[in-house]
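Hey, I was hoping to borrow your eyes for a little while. I've dropped the whole record in just underneath, so have a look:

——
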Amino acid sequence: QVQLVESGGGLVQAGGSLRLSCAATGRTFSTYAMGWFRQAPGKEREFVARISKSGVLTYYADSVKGRFTISRDNAKNTVYLQMNSLKLEDTAVYYCAADYTSGYGSSWYENGARYDYWGQGTQVTVSS
């Protein structure tokens, strides 16, 4: 079992930055690949970013590539999402998720059903 708790969300102006954190407790953190997803009101959940167990490999949705950076600190059992140049369309609840099987390929990475544990989410609101 893994428990995930996100933090760092809030209200920010367009063009601004936020850093989300996701703290994990329970099973050994470094045995999980980690992902970030988001869900805007009235929309389906969408994939944002993923990082491998070691942190060496990262993968991003096209919509955030070049603006967001995912990282992890296995010593602190925490994964981060640095969000820069925020846009109105980035407004959503952001969730972190843990993938124990750690499959490969975009179809795996982007599929929320492949992730075993989820946090409760943190709201990010970008204003004009």
Observations:
- The mean pLDDT is 96.
- The two ends are 40 Å apart (CA to CA).
- The first strand starts at residue 2 and ends at 7.
- The longest helix spans residues 106-109.
